[in-house]
Amino acid sequence: MIQTPTTTVASGPGKRVQVADKTLGRCVELVAVALIVLEVVILFSGVAARYVLHVPLVWTDELASILFLWLSMLGAVIALRRGQHMRMTALIDRVSPERRVLLEGFAASASLAFLLLFLYPAFEYAYEESYIVTPALEISNAWHAAALPVGIALMILTSVFRMVMTDARKQLLTSLVVTLALLAVFWLAQPMLMGLGKFNLVIFFVVVVAACVFSGVPIAFSFALATFGYLALTTQTPMVVMVGRLNEGMSHLILLAVPLFIFLGALIEMTGMARAMIQFLASCLGHVRGGLSYVLVGAMYLVSGISGSKIADMAAITPVLFPEMEKRGAKKGELVALLSATGAQTETIPPSIVLITIGSVTGVSIAALFTGGILPAVVLGLCLCVVVGWRYRHEDLSKVAKVPRRDIFRFLLIALPAISLPFVIRAAVVEGVATATEVSTIGVVYSILLGLLVYRQFDWKRITPILVETATLSGAIMLIIGCATAMAWALTQSGFSSDLAALMANVPGGSYGFLIISVIAFIILGSILEGIPAIVLFGPLLFPVARALHIHDVHYSIVVIFAMGIGLFAPPFGVGYYGACAIGKVNPSEGMRYIWGYVAALLVGLMIVTFVPWISTGFIK
Predict the structure, then answer these.
(1) Is the pLDDT of residue 579 over 80?
(2) Alpha-helix residue ranges (DSSP H) falling in 134-272
(3) Is the peptide bond before 572 cis (omega within 30 degrees of 0)?
(4) Which of 9, 180, 274, 477 has the fewest beta carbons closer than 10 A?
């Protein structure tokens, strides 16, 4: 998050800026909400026309792609305004308040600097795209490309508004001066940098990226600044090319499944579907030692089969299970540790956003990934259950009554419509009825109908806030993907990918040695960069090496996703762990002593999946 302390100004220019900021924010949010609704309507209409009316609508994908880029950029604007862009705060949280304000100011000013530098190339790119006509709609591609300069301009305006409203103006001015000085130093050093050759990769993609990330600059802007600096100062590449690579990364239609599955995750909580599934699992296992912990593991597995967002999964499960588990004497730290571990365990459950992302950037079949991700998650879940069984072997169940079979059957009937949704989603994709993007709209419509007609829980007042949150998270994710794609392209053009391939091909131990190194690397990357940036940045570089070593694409995908997930949900740097603590309303320090047993279980499970490829590939047709 980029956070600048603000103050409410009673009158004068400051008040007018606040009004302008709120007006701009509200307008952008309403447009983003309308775009999500339009995307659902367009894609679902395409499925219905093709499979019900047998009259394919050839323009739906093209129109959805155009609107998707606009949604991504407007979502990025909302995320910037709300301070919800993904970033690493481990260092910022440990410094004094004075230094923290300086670092927050540096994060804001560095982000603004990139946006200002990138604005003209974005306009230039949109102008060049105006000469291209889209094949289906036969309109200028400027309607698509214009989203980039408009979104960047709105982010600049938002950043300026936030800076004007800050009450830490002295610290912000200091941060702005430091940012300008650093930009000037790099600009003046251009002749020297041109002669350093590949050492520039270390300067920009190690030193600059690390300095920005650890200073609290959002990950997307850290990648973008490093890439822009490398291309502008050490190559002859026009910046419009970088805009094109960013646009390419954000425009994959398959990634439209990201906001739609995030929306679906919020719907299953609001409509009571998640509660119905958990209630059934609790009736089956609640009377055994550690039963509700087993329910937590199983519930995350089931709910992850509906939602693509781990935060949405956790938010749906926590309010239902945690109060009852605490009544039985479970400690809050133990609960949040297991919740965080299940976040890593279920990373490969379709329709995982990470699965969709890795498929889009590496060309691996989404249907194959969906099939290959199911059994490995079971293996890691069983490893977690072993730890649960050991820790709860002395649990007192004298006051816990076994639920009668009649009630279990009744709970099953109630939960059955909800439980069937994950299987509908998987079957639709695997059997080719709908793409991974289209099937998300089927899930959305199915959930809305269940909420209205079956569970009778549908709060219309929550729809707009849910859609705004969906746009915000989607914008933050998509901007990271776009910037990471541009950075990966720059690394490839520098020759780094071929050097990396040659180095990794000679790793001792052959394919298994390469897998072990990949596991270690992605655990570290997952903890620092979060999952999606690590996947987008290094996936295109490492997958060719894996193929050369005859490692199955799906097997390698599952291994690196689990490794990334363990890094993401393990302290002290894993952002996912702190997200779980926030959802469970638990101090992170309370879960530290309990989580390492679960991390060890996840590592054991990961080693099993790594060394037994059949677990990932055995059911792929």
Answers:
(1) no
(2) 142-145, 147-164, 169-188, 190-194, 199-202, 209-214, 219-234, 239-250, 257-270
(3) yes
(4) 180
Q: Which of 567, 560, 565 lies closest to 545, judged by CA?
A: 560
> Residue 158: pLDDT band by 50, 70, 90 thresholds?
very high
Helix (H) or strand (E) holding 272: none
Work out the burial of residue 329: count CB atoms within 10 Å of its CB; fewer than 13 is exposed, 13-18 middle, 19 or more buried: exposed
Q: Report the pLDDT value the prediction gives residue 1, as an integer from 0 to 100.
A: 42
Strand partners, 166: 6
Separation of CA 240 from chain center:
27
The position carrying tokens 């007018």 is 16
Opening angle at CA 50, ends 45 and 55, nearest 5? 100
Segment 261-284 mean pLDDT: 84
Tell me the three-class secondary structure of 58-77, residue by residue: CCHHHHHHHHHHHHHHHHHH
At 567, list the tokens. Answer: 């890094």
Residue 377 makes CB contacts below 8 A (sequence gap 6+) with 301, 304, 345, 346, 347, 348, 349
pLDDT at 2 over 50: no
In whole numbers, what is the pLDDT of the chain averaged over residues?
Answer: 86
- Position with higher pLDDT, 549 vs 117: 117
Q: Are 339 and 574 in contact (CB under 8 A)?
A: no
The model's pLDDT over 346-375, given as tens digits with 9 standing for 90+, comes to 888 887 778 888 888 888 888 889 889 999
**DSSP SS3 for 466:** helix
User: Counting beta carbons within 10 angstroms of the beta carbon of residue 120, is it exposed (0 to 12), middle (13 to 18) or buried (19 or more)?
Assistant: middle
Nearest to 356 by CA among 135, 148, 532, 204: 532
Using a 10 angstrom Cβ sphere, with 0-12 exposed, 13-18 middle and 19 or more buried, the burial of residue 399 is: exposed
Q: Where are the beta strands (DSSP E) in 238-379?
A: none
pLDDT at 611 over 60: yes
Nearest CA to 115 out of 81, 86, 148 is that of: 148
pLDDT tens-digit series, residues 431-469:
777 777 788 888 888 899 999 988 888 889 999 999 999
pLDDT computed for residue 5 by the predictor: 44
The CA dihedral of 302, 309, 329, 590, to the nearest 10 degrees, is: 150
Q: Give per-residue burial for 56-84: e unless 16+ CB within 10 Å, then b.
A: ebeebbbbbbbbbbbbbbbbbbbbbbbbb
Cα 137 vs. chain centroid, distance in angstroms?
31
